[in-house]
Amino acid sequence: MKHLSLKKIATVAIIVLLAAIAVRLSVFVEPLHERTQREKKGNFSPRELADDFWKHRRREALAAAIELGIFDSLLRTNAPFLKSHWGRTVGVASSHSFLVKGSLTTGGSGSDTWPVAMYGQTSYSLRVKHIFGNTVRNAVGCFNVDDFENTMDFNALSAELNARVASEIVAEGITSLPRSSTLRFTGALELHDGATPKELEIIPLKIERVR
Amino acid sequence: MRSLFVFLLAGTFAATLPSCNSGKPKEKEKIAIIISTLNNPWFVVLGETAKRRAEELGYNAVLFDSQNNPSKETEHFDNVIASDYRAILFNPTDAKGSIANVKASKEAGIPVFCMDREVNVKDVAVSQILSDSYSGCVMLGQHFVKTLEAKGSFVELLGIVGDNNTWNRSKGFHSVVDNYPGLTMVAQQSGEFDRNKAMEVLESMLQAHPDIKGVFCGNDAMAMGAYQAVLAAGKAGKIVIYGFDGAADVITAIKEGKIKATGMQFPRTMAVTAAEYADRYVKGDRNFQQKVPVAVELVTRENVDNYRPYGKAE
Question: What is the ipTM of this complex?
Answer without folding.
Answer: 0.85
